[in-house]
């Protein structure tokens, strides 16, 4: 019966394509004279392998793009999306590290051990070294790989650094946030350090007080100018914006003086600067001969944080939650190689899908022993075909704060509903445990000078509730809980959760290591775990064991 219900409802998931005409083929303001959109310099025909430019914004809310109705102007994003394919059923993870780990490995968090929270600066933790990464696979087929921006996948030992995980070069920050001008970050009182790197060393020479969004864009332009466009390049641009702290150059406030809420006003200025930066990146792609053979992918890493100016309206919840506002993201693909340009894709796409999709486009091979959770969705995006994906495990976090009233009984003996988890199967979405902040935050909430929750819409839950079921296709705003009406569907999804959980690896979330203090590392956040020391200790212990064995043999003789 459940299978029939799911199969019947899956017929509702139709690809919607609305074709748009942009008219002009010219680039934006600031483009060099005579450099028309798509014009290539006489440098020879590009290779069949496309140039891949992946742009990841930080904490951009679902509503915070012009084509989603925002009051914040994003002409570059609007134009690129209108000429490409908008992804309107696109999902990421609710926080920084999880989304980045899934992008770079093609695996769910439960399969890398990073299913809880984020990697903290003082934790001896990083993306497990036995995971093959996207840049490593692209290097195998001749790509030059470069990363600019925020890493946030751990750095406690040198082997965890971006240049050791497949990138030919790295320029950016290792932590999750920091000052946009000084690049300093305090994790706690007295635990502060510098966080700007070029490859494996602190980039003191680049510390010129330049706003990070602009500085990263300049670095991207330098990379494109020095690379041969006849050779494929993978450029991963992970901007710090629009993550807190809320900082922006003064001139970007010009159009947003009327926004009374100071956080929203600063956020708007930051996003305006980011939009301009992406325009400059696309101009550089055209100027240096990459554009005609390029694929530009734009994505936010998670939902917006209303208390820090972001808006996910009309979606429910925010960053850090498994409501749609935390995991449904702004995303699009722009490329001359797309077949259905100017369309809207409403097929299911997840951030893990970029790993197999991009490797296949790059003419690479995916090893059979790599157990991926992502799917190749290029034909879905480019040609409008059905997505091979029918489900998404949003996450299972066994050590998140347990819901007080959760129990095995509430989960029909199939699942302990005290555990925080979320899963999507076709049109159905199930949440258990404590899903997080659940308000709807409308635009009016940003109308006052300070935070105002009186405008927020809230739902009073009945005591002991730890299971929610929604038909996301019919109810994308999660307003009607169907768990009581469809217990058989709840059971079916709980069984899927249980099956996924059997494949989970242990959680990696170690305690703080006092050796991580930047004061012990020249005032810089960076690798502190010394492999040599560990080897010396193990060698000493081995030597001691050998001596003991020798003495025991003599005694025996």
UniProtKB/TrEMBL annotation:
Residues 50-362 form the Sulfatase N-terminal domain. Keywords: Calcium, Glycoprotein, Hydrolase, Metal-binding, Signal. Residues 506-557 are annotated as: Disordered. One of its GO terms (molecular function) is sulfuric ester hydrolase activity. Residues 543-557 have a biased composition (Basic residues). The keyword NADP does not apply. It comes from the Eukaryota. Belongs to the sulfatase family. Residues 529-542 have a biased composition (Basic and acidic residues). Residues 1-23 form the signal peptide. This is ARSJ Arylsulfatase. Its cofactor is Ca(2+).
